[in-house]
Structures are given as C-alpha cells and as structure tokens.
Amino acid sequence: MAKNASRTNAGRTKTSAPAKPVKPAAASAASAASTVSETSAAEESNQSSASTSATNGSAKGIMQLYWDLASLEPEVRQDAASKLLSALTTFQSEHEASLDSSKPKLATAEADLQELCAPDVAYAVQRLFRGLPSARDGARQGFAMALTELLRTLSVFTTKLGLDLLEKYTSVEPGMKGPEQRGTRFGRLFGCVSIVRSGVLGRASTTLDDYERLVKMLCESGSSKGYMRESIYQTLIWAVDEAVSAHNIDVNSVIMLVLTNMFSIVEGDSERKQKPAVQTPDELLLLIHIQQTVPQFKDWAAVPAMSSWEDHRVISASNAEQLIRILRESSSENPALFSTWRPQPHSIWDTLFNLLTAPSQPSNTVELSTLWKGVVDEHFFHPSSSTEKKFWGLQLITNVLSTPQLPVSFVSQVFSVHVLRFLMDNLSSKKKPLHKAAAQTMDALTARVRDATDGSQRQIALALLHQLHDSAELRTFDQATHTKTTETLLQALSADGINDYAAKLCSQFIQPSVDGSSSSKADITGTRTWALDQLHALIRNQQIPKSDQTVDLVLQLLAFHSFFILDSKNAAKGAKDLIARHFSLISGKDLTVTSPALTDLDRKATQQRLFGILGNLATRAPQSTQEKTSETGTGASSAVNQLLIGCKSDGIPWAAPLATAVDALATAVQKTAKNTKGLAMIEISDSAVHGLTKSVELVKSIQTIISALSKKQQKPDQSAEQRRQLSQMRAYEIMLVHISLMVLIEEEDLVGTVDDLEACYLHFFAPLEALAPAAFTAKRAVKLPPPKLGSVSPTPSSEPTPAEVLIDSIIGLLSRPSALLRSLSERMFVVFAGQMTKASLSAIENVLTDNDVVGDGDDDDDDIDDEDGFVDIDEEDENDVEAAGGSEWDDTDDEDNEDEEEDDDDEDEDDSDMDSDDDNDDDGEIIEEEFKKKLLAALGDAALDVNMNDDDDDEDNSDTANSEDSDDEGPLFTDDQMFATDGHLAAVFRERKLLADERKRQAHEKKMAKIGLDHFRQRVLDLVELFIRRFPRHPLIVDLGLTLLRAFKSYAAKSTASATQLSKRLAGVIANKYCKITGTISYAAAASGDDVDAEHLTVSAEGILEILDEVHTISRRSQHAEVAEVGGLISVFLVRQVLQASRSQSAAQKSNAIDHIVSLYRTIIGDLCTNKTTHLRISFVSNLVEKHPLLAWPLLTSPQSKNAKSADDAASHSISQYIAHESCAWTGREPHMLELASTLLRLVTPSSSSSALPATTTPSKGKSSAASNEEPQSVCPPPTVAGYAAGINSVLTACATILTAAAANATAENAGKKKQQYFLERIRNVCKAVSAIIKRADSLGDAAFDRKLAGAKSLNAAVAQLLEGDKLQNPSVRAQLEEIRTSLSVENNTTSPTPSDAKKQKQQPKQQQQPQQQQQKQQPAKSPATNPKKRRGTEAASAEQASTPLKAAQVTSDKKKPNAAAAAAAAAAAAAVTATPNSAKKRKGNSSK
User: Fold this and answer.
1) What is the pLDDT of residue 84?
2) Does the pLDDT at position 712 exceed 60?
C-alpha cells in the first residue's frame, strides 16, 4: 500500500517526491540508540529525572531529526527515522517504568496519550500526524514511515485514537485551496496506511466500529479523487488481511462492511445506493483478493454488484468478457473513471500472472491467454491505441517474462503478430517514441531466454522462433531492428530444439505457405529462398549447438532436391525403398516431395546453398572436437584436429555419404528404370554420372588407405613421411567427394578434372598400392595429362611429375567462381606444395603475369587463354590510357640505357593495341556496310536514284541547275511504294538493333571475362601467400622472387583499376611477406616440419646469383620507378640468401660471390650517378647498406684490382668516386651519395685485431655497430684499420673536391643568385656528412682517422679557402665550416704518447700532475699547437687518465677551443706535415705500448 500510495502521490502532485520502499526503522536503530542514551545518561545521574534531562539536553538534536524526515534523499530520511525511533523508544521505556500499574493501559484519547507516553513520545505522535498533510519535499513519506514504526512500538496506542487524530489533523476545512485539499487527502491516506501497516488495526482493542470508520474514511477519499483509488483499495486489502489475522473480529462482518461501502454511491441529498456492477480494476482486485484469502465468505448474493458474475466467482471462465472489459480501462466507455493516466499498468496484473499460472487452479478458471489476447493484444497494441496504452503493454510483457513458471504455450500469445510488428517498428529507429521501452522489453526477453536452465523453459525460445518465422512480414525482424534476436534464441536452444527448428525450416521449404495460406509463385519462391538462407545460417554459425544428425538432415534435404525429382503418386516401391535406404532422415519426415514442385530458380538456389554449406563444413573441425580442445586448453590434439577438418565426429567427410547416396540413386535411375518409376533425375549427362561414379570409387580406396594409415598413426614410432601421407590422403579424399557432387552441375568443366585427379592419385600414391591394390591394379596404365596452364618441365623431353600436374589442376580450379573449390584448393595446395617444382612455379608465373604487356610467347599465351576459358581483353578506354602513359615515357631525354629487347616488347604491345582497335573498327565497318546493302535492297529503285543523286553531289557545284530540274520531276516514292517498303525497312532496322545488342552482349562477356581473370589472379596470389607462410624455407622461395617481380612489372605499365589493384597486392606480398622471410633455406630445416620433397631441394649460391642478375637487369631496364623499388627489396633478400648459401663454401667461392654482388651494385651506383633519366632510386643501394653494411663496404672506394681497366669502367664505380664527380651533382645524387658514405662509416666497425683499437667501440646513435654487422666475419670480414682509414680518406678527398669547386662559384661576384644558392646547398650537404664522419671516426680513435692524412689536409685547405675573406657571407654556412676546420685541426688529433713521454708521466707524482693540469686549463692563451712538446705531454696525461680512446676523445673535446690565430697556426702546421708509412707504424707501435 505504501508503494502504491507513494506512486500515486508522485504521479499526481508536483510538490511531493516519490518514496522508495524502505526497511523498518526499528531494524536499524540499534547503533543510533546507544549514542542518544549514553548522552542523556551522562548529563543526569538520577533515574527519576532522566526523561526531563534528555528532553532539555538533546532537544535541539531531536528537533533537527524532524526536519531531516522531510529530506528528498531516502537515505537521509531513513537515518533520521532510525535515530528518532531509537531516542523515543528509550524515553518510552523509561516512562513506562515509572507508571503506576493500577492505571489503564490503553490510550483511547489524547489525554491518555499524554499520560501513558513520555512527553517526547506524545509530542512525536502528534507532530507526525500533524505533518502528514505537509507538501514540503519528502515530509509526507518520511513522517508516514516514522509514524508507522513508532505506532508499532507503542502498545498503548489504539485504532480509535489514531482515527481521532487523523480526523483532527487531516480534515478538509472550508476555504482551503486546491493544493491544500489535495495535501490533506493524501495526509489522511498516509495516516490510514500507517495505522494498518503498523499492526494497530489488528490489536484486540480494535472494534467493528473502528473498522467501519476506517473503511468509510478510505472510501470517501477514493470516490472523490480517482488518482487515489488504487492506493486506497490496496489499503482496504491490507485491512482485510488484518481482520483475518485478528481473533476478536468477525471476518465476514468486516468483509460485508468493506463491500457495502465500496459499492455505495451518493445520489441526490446524501442518499446512498449500491453500484449495479464492478467497474474498475481496483474493485476487481479487492474482490479477487477476498475470494482467495477468505474462501469461507459466501454471502455474495447480498452484494448487488456481484449479481452478474456467474457462481459469484470473479476469475471463472464464464466471466471472461466482464474481466476483459474492466481490465481494458477504456476511457471511451467510462470517461469519468479512466480520465487520468498513470505511468505503470495496474497492480492487478501481477496478481493475475501469479494466480493464473499456478498449477493448482479449478478447471473452470479463466485462461491467462484469453485475458491477454482480449486486453493486451487486441486493445493495448491495437494500431489505433494510444501511445500510453502501448507503453503499458510493453511493461506487461516485461513483467510476464519475469514470471517463474511461464507456460510455453502462452509465449505465442504474448509475442503475437501485433506485438512483434509493433516491436519491429519501434526498434527500427531511435526516433520512435517508445524505442527505449521496446529495447528494454527485448533485453528482458534475451535475459529470460539466456538464463533458462530446464528443457521446458528452453522451449520458450523455440516458440518465439516459430512465431517470428510463421509470418512473412516478421522474417526480416533482425534486419529491420538491427538486432540478433534469431541468433540469441537459437543459442539458447538445446540440441534437440535445434533439430526441431531445422525440421520446421525443412517443412517450410517442402510446402511453403505465407501467413498460413497459399500464395503466388513469387511468394512461394521467396519463402523457399528464406528457408534455405535460414538453414545456411544455422549450419554456418558455430556458436549454435548442433548435432551431426541435424547437419545430415539439412544436407540430405538439399542434396536430394538438388539432383532428383520424386512423383509420390506414381512412385514405385523400389524407388521409395531406395530413397529410404540412402536418404533415411528426410524420408522418415516426409521431406522428399515438394508441393508445389520446385522451379528452376528454386533448384538452382538449393544447389547454391548445398555447396555453400559444404564449403563451410569443409573448413572446420567437428564441434565435439572443438569443445574438447577448448576444455583442455592445450594443443596436444592439434594434429588430429587438422585431419578432422571437413569431417564428422567419426572421421568421415560430410560430403562422402551424400556422394555415395547420389551415385546409388543416379546409377539406379539409369539402369533400372522400372524399379525406380516416379524417381527422376535432373538433366545430367552420362559423362557426369560416370565422373561421379569414378570419384566415389576413388574415395572408397582412399578411405581404405586412410584407415590403414590411421592405425599406424597410433603407434609412437610413426614417421614424418607417414604423417605427411595421411594428411595428403585426407585432403585428396575431401577434394574428390566435393568435386564428385559438383561435376553433376558443371560436367563440361570438371569431368576432365576428375580424370586428372585420378591419374595423379595413381602415380602419386603408388608406394601405397599394397594398402589398396584393387584401385591401382585395374588402372595401372593411366598416363599423366600434360599441364594446362603453360607450365613446362625442366627438360622438353621429360614427362611431367605427378606433383606438377596436381598443382596445375589445383591452380586451374581457382579459376572457377566457387568459394568451396577455393577453400579445397587451398587445403590441397598446403599439403602438396612441398613437392612443387620450377615447372609449377612457371605455371603460377604464367597466370600472374599480364602477357599482353610483357609480350613473351604470344602463341603460348593464346593457348593458355583457350584452356582456361578466359580472354585477356583490354577495353578501348584502357588502351587509350596505356597509350597516354607510353607517350609520357617516350618524352625522356636519354634512352641509351634501354636494351633492344624491351623496345621490341613495347612496340609489340603498341601494335597489339592498335590491332585490337583496328579490329573493332573493322567490325563496325562490316556491320555498317551490311546494313547499307540491306537498306538499299529494301528501298529498291528509289534507292538507286538516291545513290545516283549522291554521286552527282560529289561532282562540280555547277550542276546545281540540273539537280533542281530533277527535283521538279516528282517524288522518288509514291504512297503505295512507301507503304510497301515499310515492312522491309522495319525488318532491316530490327536486325540492326539485334546486331547492336549482340555487340553489347559480347562486350559485356569480354568485360566479365576480364574481371574473372583478375579474380583468378587474386586467388593465385592467395596461394602464393600460403606458400610463403607455410614453406618459408623451400628452395623455390628464391625463384619465387623473380616470378613476383616479373608479374609486378607486367602491371606497372597499366593504369587501369584492376592492374593497379593487382600491382598493389603484389607489392604488398613482396614487401610484407616475401622479404620478411627469415632463416636459412636448406633441406635440413625444410624437411623438419614443412613436408618438402628432398628430390627438388637444390640451392646454391651460383643459382641465386643468376636470379640476382636477372632481378638487377629487370630493375635497371624498367621504365617505372615502382618496379625498380620492388626489385631493390628482392635484391637485398637474395643477397642475404647468397651469404647464407656461401657459408659452407670455400674462401675463393665466398670471395667470388661477394665480388659478384658488389659488381652488380657498382653498376647500379653508376646508373644512379650518370643517368638522369633512370628510374632507379637510391633506396636500391641504401637498403643493402643498412641491412648488409660489411658487404657494402667495398662500394665506398674503387677496387684495386686488374678487373678495373679504367676509371669509367663499371667495375671501378664507387661512392667516393661519384661524390667528387660532376655527373653526380648533375643527376642530383650527390646528397644521397654523401648520406650513403656517412651511413657506411657509421655502421661498419673496423677489425679489432689490431691493438690500436679497443675491443668494444661506442655504438652509433640508433643502431649498435655489433648489430649492424649482420654477416658473419667468415663471409664478409670487416675492414682493417688501414682500410677503414683509407675509406675515410677517400670520402674526405671527394668532399674537398666539392668544396674547392664551390669556393670558385659560391663566392664569385659575377655568379647568379640561383647558382650561389646551388653551391651553398652543396656546401651544407658536405658539412653535414663530414661532421657525422668525423664524429664517428673520433669515437674509434686516431688509429682509424689521422688528421694528417691527405684527405683531411685537402679538406682543411678547401675550408680555409672558403672562409678566406668575407666573400662567403652566409652565417650558417660559415659556422658549419668553422666547426669542421676546428675539428680537423691537428691539435684535436688524439694520438697516443711516445714511450719516453709515457715513462716520464708515470714517474711524476700525482700531486705534481694535478696542479700542472689545472695550470694548463687556466692558461687558454697558450695553445698547445704552438708548443709541440707541451701538446704531446698534455695529450699523454689525458691518455693516461682515459682508459679507452672514447674517454680520451671526451677529455680532449672538453678542452677549450683555440682562437682564430691558433686555428690558423694549426692549419699551417698540419699542411707542413707529411704522413709516411713509417710514421704510421710508429704511431701504431706507440699506441700499442
């Protein structure tokens, strides 16, 4: 009652806040009571004055509690009520102890209350009653809660006193305003609730008169205001319950009193009459409650309103109409009673749900489904109902879903067509007014279905699925609502429920009906297509639990109706027995005869869904195996799972029983027509049936071999060869069983494939003949067919291997637009790709390469197109684009580097394009000529005259007068002639239109063939990725790089969308897959787990170098930078493979391999620096430098060998040479060459065998030198210290040459601004490179870099020349040059001390050394450069303090820099010194000592 009263109050008043259900305050008052009692006891020591002292001492705190009772926060109200009740309970207990036992124990008046209760308690009772009408915040809720709990504790309080106080403080006085009257009425209602719920009404002091006063008080309030009616009637129900529990009150009298006042109305001058009937749900709820709780009450005849109810039982089935009328609460029938709306449906529905779903109800009880249909379905969710009523309906659905024992049969009533249509409409858009409410309802449905445990409750999901799918309009529920309702319901079903659901879908496919009635052919086709889609989705979803029987049922249904037709009326017994034997599941469920018969469109859709489901099943393991693997959480059974992919739990492929059954029926139909009367097969050729039979026989032999191999697998000593054979046999079996079914619908294309697979099987698995001799003996003479994709054997005379033919067939199957064949081909390729040869790789190259662009082997390409059924056609607009692209490259300045073969290829390509255009033009001219001839024939003689006149028009214009005379002769056609020629002209133009349509059709076919070819190439690329991922160490990986590069080159010249897509895909495969392969390609590594055939494992450094030569040739001659960039990536990969293959070779072979690679890259450097039109990029060389710096080190300087005949020879090309060459600056490669030089010097660390260098050096920033030297020293040894110094010297010499040339131009007065800027930029580049080189050299010590070398001296002189005078005015450049000159000064050369100097330094005491060092630091004017002895001594001390050259360099760099005069002197001294080999040896010896 408190809940309903507060709900009504919140819905009707704006000043009061809704009260939430709270726990009794007495239950939480223990902790607060001790605090209050302890405070009062501490203030007074005698017991007699405890109450007075408590009142005076804590009056302020208690008064604050009354204010807290009116808080809007429920927690604050509860806390205040707990503290108040705790204090009042203490006061009352102390007061009762002081009372005289001879005085009366009950308070029937206010005077008794003052006497029997403590003053604070009496005050509290009066104030709480007085505060009930208050509309301040939450005062009414808080005061009613506190009053209820306080009256529960006061045993002296009586109902009479409570009613008196209510009448005193909640009377409506004249002159009250509307809000005041409403507050007073609510206060009286809350007061009645407090009296009833506190238990005061059930005490022995309560009389029948008290009940009458209470009932009349409530009924008068309810009759005046309808928004209080529900709460008032709920209070009456509680009052009846109190009367039932009381022993001093006659329950029947109380019930009669309640009924009399409930149905009484006032008419005229206070004349009361009885209502003729029950009108509201409130009255109905009270009557139902009385009949359920007080069944002994029989005096219903005395109530006039119950006269129309049969047997006076409200929920009787015969009273259904009256119940429906009352529960509808229709404002149109009785506006006075139902003019106001509440946010929640009436509470009577909760009573009806619990009552009518209980199992123990009389047989004549009304059904809940009857009430639901009449009220909710037909009224609340009626299209014309208001939004408020529909909102009630959604709440009722949510409430009924929370009923524990919801009957499954009732679900279809709850989610009727009206309800589901309403939900679908409101869930489709968030702008709908009831979208959130509908979403909450669906959430409740999902929770109920998901949490169902027992089987009966899980059937709710099945009932909902049937309800959704029985209506054609609701079958798109998920798509319209953007939900996964169907999937959620299916996941909640058990395996048996899924089987029933699948059977239901199969029945709808067999005999479709829309909304329970037959429909048009389009509707029937739509229903069957929908059923097929649902079956496909059911099998495809792995989250739905399915048994093998369910999957077999669906497969048998689709397989039978894809290939057979059964006439049930004329069917022979033999046909039925045959179907029952091979298609037992559908035969037992009467799913063999469709009504109406399937159309061609239906049968095609059935075949598509059949192979779609088989394709999905062929890629996953059985569900039981998946569950077992997920439970164990280990990969121990991964090998077994791989073998069971595409199979059932028993290890038999899903399609194997289907192939056997279809073969048995097809053979029986062809051979025994009489016994199979009524059973027909679709139009299938004999060759297709023969291919099916052949495949089934091969599958049986394969299954025999698999069974034998599986037994061997269980033994622990099973070899890797046996495991490989078992996986290959399983893949072969699954491929054959699927192709055996597909051959029935694509017999022209797949019959030959079956023959090829049979031949490959007999030759490939010949070693296993002993396991199945019958399959091999009969067909031992079958020969392998030639490859069909243009692949060639290693030798022209040799026959193809079984692996070549098999992989050729696998690749050929990818040309078909079938996802099933694609997945099967990928599986076959994975298990057989280990035996792939170069011929197979050639087949892949022929498919991937666009031969129209490459122009190699035109005749072979035509044969390939004929075999595959694809024609490589370029559209006219594509040819135009290609022609435009070709002209762009023709505008280049220098074509000397292009060879004649490439020019011939381009010419052939242009010629082919021109020929195709000419062919199209010739076709158009032929058609136009034929049309003209037919038109002239239709016109007859008049056409000849017109033709003659046309010829005359071509003559001299002077004949105009003659033409005018001819016009005067009369018309060419008479009317009769014109009518006679109309039919001929119409026929001619009709034929012309047909020819035009035929041309369009042919053009469309060519376009689709081109698209099909592009898709075919994409699928072959999928195989290439599989090969790279599965066999990264296969020997053919080396050859694959060249194959991919050639294919990429063929698409780089085209700008069409398909060519661009393929080129991007190829570039991604090369960069992200191929070039990321790690490890060594060798037989030992490959055979360990990759199933690679040992016969074809031949990898040598020489063979890889040949491929590398071809890659460099293609990259250099390509007209596209993208090809050169991809070629650079492949080149670096092949270089790594050469180094790996050379590790086991002799030193001479290693040296030759390295020299060969360096020679190739020297040529690349020459092209980059001398040919401005080359499409090579600097990344071609930089990739090698970064990945293999030791190998690239010889590129820094020119070789000192007899192979370099001259400086212009390709064998002498080097980075340092071209840095100083003008062609490098002309081509714009100078900054790139400088960057390459600095990168090489940064990544390479010279050999530490010499004592001049430390064992460990400081790594450069970003990469460590140890990490940069990837190659083992046995293949690419690091340079010596002298060689490293020579490299630095050559680079610095080249930089000096650039600065010398810049000094003459950047500082010239007559030089233009652009020219000056050009040389200034060159100077900046040199400064940047030199700074990085010197920094790296200093980190290695003086042994690696001596500033007295010729290169450093030349560079220093060039810098001095640039800085001379004020000609160079750019401040940033001057600062960079100054920094270089400082770093190149001789005093910065951290040479090691001589032995004598080191000995003297050791003999000096440390006390003398430290002041000496400090003195040197304090005298910056005396530069060490002016005193060589002083400089050497200082450097010796620094060297002794630093344990490594790095520390020595740091000590030297910490010194203050010399001034300009000192720097000039140092430069002069450095120029005067000449470095000799003897001095170098001396420094080396000193350093070692």
Assistant:
1) 92
2) yes
Tens digit of pLDDT for each residue in 656-672? Answer: 999 999 999 988 888 87
pLDDT at 48 over 90: no
Contacts of 258 (CB under 8 A, 6+ apart): 215, 236, 239, 240, 286, 290
Cβ atoms of 1188 and 1276 closer than 8 Å: yes
Cβ pair 162, 197 in contact under 8 A: no
Residue in the structure block whose two tokens are 């067999």: 510
Residue 517's DSSP bridge partners are: 514
Listed range (680-684, 1265-1269, 1381-1385) with the worst mean pLDDT: 1265-1269
Q: Give the three-class secondary structure for 1249.
A: coil
Coil/strand/helix, residue 122? helix
Q: Is 234 exposed, middle or buried (0-12, 13-18, 19+ CB in 10 A)?
A: buried
- Over residues 952-966, the pLDDT tens digits come to 444 444 444 444 444
CA distance 977 to 1465: 117
Of 622, 829, 659, 643, the residue nearest 737 (C-alpha): 659
What is the three-class DSSP state of 314?
coil
CA dihedral 673, 674, 678, 683 (to 10 degrees): 10
* Residue among 220, 215, 202, 295 nearest 259 (CA): 215
Separation of alpha carbons 930 and 695, rounded Å: 52
Residue-level pLDDT at 1270: 45
- Tell whether the model's pLDDT for residue 1403 goes beyond 80: no
CA distance 158 to 165: 11
d(CA 1344, CA 1338): 8
- Burial class from Cβ neighbours inside 10 Å (0-12, 13-18, 19+) for residue 362 reads exposed
For residue 1415, pLDDT beyond 90: no
- Look at the chain and count its residues: 1489
DSSP structural state of residue 18 = P
264 strand-pairing partners = 274
Distance between CA 782 and CA 95 in Å, rounded? 117
For range 743-772, the mean pLDDT: 80
CB atoms within 10 A of CB 306: 18
Cα 1141 to chain center, whole Å? Answer: 42
Can the peptide bond before residue 433 be classed as cis, meaning omega within 30 degrees of 0? no
Please give the structure tokens belonging to residue 138.
Answer: 């939450």
Pair 572, 678: CB distance under 8 Å: yes
What mean pLDDT is reported for the chain?
A: 75
Q: How confident is the model at residue 638 (pLDDT cuts 50, 70, 90)?
A: low
Instruction: Look at residues 213, 204, 198, 291 and name the one whose alpha carbon lies nearest to residue 247.
Output: 204
Q: Mean pLDDT, to the nearest integer, of 391-417? A: 87
Q: How confident is the model at residue 890 (pLDDT cuts 50, 70, 90)?
A: very low
Token reading at 1104: 């890889």
At position 334, the amino acid (one-letter code) is: N
CA distance 1437 to 1440: 5
Residues 929-953, buried b or exposed e (16+ Cβ, 10 A)? eeeeebeeebbeebbeeeeeeeeee
Cα 221 from chain centroid (whole Å): 63
- Beta bridge partner(s), residue 679: 566
The contacts of residue 1095 (CB under 8 Å, 6+ apart) are none
Beta bridge partners of 316: 365
- Residue 246 DSSP class: -
Q: Kindly report, residue by residue over 83-128, the tens digit of the pLDDT.
A: 999 999 999 988 888 877 666 688 888 888 888 899 999 999 999 9
| Distance spanning both ends of the chain, measured CA to CA | 106
- Residue 157 bridge partners (DSSP): 107
CA–CA gap between residue 809 and residue 803 (Å, rounded) = 10
Residue 968 burial (10 A CB sphere; 0-12, 13-18, 19+): exposed
Best CA proximity match to 805, nearest among 828, 774, 777: 828
